[in-house]
Amino acid sequence: MQAAENSLEKIKQSGKIVVATSPDYPPYEFQVNKHGENKIAGMDIDVAKQIAKDLHVKLVIKSMKFDSLLVAIETGKADMAIGGINPTSERRQSVDFSNIYYLGGQSFLINKSDSMKFPNQKALQGKLVGAQTGSLQYNLAKTHMANTTIKGMDKTPDLILALKIHKLEAVGVEKPVAKAYASNDNGLTIVPATYKLDKNQVGAAIAFKKNSYMLEDAVNKSIKKIKEGNKIDGYLKDAGKDMKVNTTNTSMWNYSDYFVKGVKYTIFISIVASVLGVLIGITLALMRFTKVKFFHALALCYVEFVRGTPLMVQVMFVYFGIGSIIDISALLAGIIAISLNSGAYVAEIIRGGIDSIDAGQTEAAASLGLPHYDTMRFVILPQAFKNIWPALGNEFISLVKESSIVSIIGVTDLIYQANLVRANTYRGIMPIFVVMVLYFVMTFILTRILNYYEMKMRSPE
């Protein structure tokens, strides 16, 4: 009970409540481009605002992938999570839930051209059906639709795109989401889901860290107030108005601010991670050449471990793992993870460059009385960098593209922004095309700059 009291007291003392959500799920939560300003809106956001108001604290929204929301709660990155989350028995093993504040029901989206072919859920048996990974819709389809191939994807816009290009025959979503897409896309229509479900597990609820009884009780009081005031209908109407704002002009130019912001973050992350990666790489490479066995073994183990694990896992570990001990932002966690990853690869590039230098250079420096440190600094490394410049250039270019992985923890890089545009405009392909062009422009410019300096280094004095 003491821990529960602390959870609520900590929020009141800080003056803010941090709410994790995935703003790509209209009408629950989504980004709206209104009067030149971008903000997160939707029914769930209005619910969160009411809770913050009742607690007399400031509402802070933290964006991330849907399947990371509960992890954020468990690791203390957020006080609560909201996002059309269904309080299933499996999820209750990891987190606690509030009372259900909305019961929307289940539906399938299909292409309107297939409406005669798939008039009901039964007709979808044995077909290719998509659902968001980790969602109730995914588990329901897996459990209740025998002999049906279920395809999971992280983002609802990806599922809708796959549906529209006929990679899927249906997509399972909640009824309000189905209505949102069908009303904004004439090519889609709705097929009702006929699952027989426990109403205590299929409605939308708010997630908390285990044993947060006092916070849960306070939130339930707000939910009771919302229900008694019939405010949900008003929240949905407001969400509908905001969605119309998004779809009034779905040109990519109208969303240029999103892409510009994404480019800025991508460039910033890439530059910082490149500098730190080189510094880490030089350190590790020199450790590999030291005669101290401990440092040599440490560098070797680090390089092998980092190269043997996926970057996505490393990013999540830094943010949720280390971040649960030391409070770090998603941006800083992304930079740290990418820098540490790049450092391992740069270390091997530099080690190869040092090995390529003729041993006579070291002997000549020794004969002149240069100590080992100065020999490495003034003789070996300058020649090594000249030899490995093309390889380092390739690493820098790869870093620009690989930095997109930070979008999984809510860093607003180019990929993250593109996903928001896709969710807001209901256009699946054009935002992807714009992002491809922007990445090409960035890497093309970087390639030209690297080639220029490579030619200068190779040209005679």
Automatic annotation (TrEMBL):
Keyword tags: Amino-acid transport, Cell membrane, Membrane, Transmembrane, Transmembrane helix, Transport
GO CC term, one of those recorded: ATP-binding cassette (ABC) transporter complex
Primary subcellular site in the record, as a coarse category: membrane
Record's keyword annotation contains Zinc: no
Cellular compartments annotated: Cell membrane
Residues of the ABC transmembrane type-1 domain: 263-450
Domain of life (superkingdom): Bacteria
Molecular function GO labels: transmembrane transporter activity
Keyword Transport: yes
Membrane topology: Multi-pass membrane protein
GO terms classed as biological process: amino acid transport
Transmembrane segments: 265-286, 317-338, 429-450
SUPFAM superfamilies referenced in this protein's UniProt entry, alphabetically: MetI-like, Periplasmic binding protein-like II
Family (UniProt): Belongs to the binding-protein-dependent transport system permease family. HisMQ subfamily.
Protein name stated in the entry: ABC transporter, permease protein
Organism: Liquorilactobacillus capillatus DSM 19910
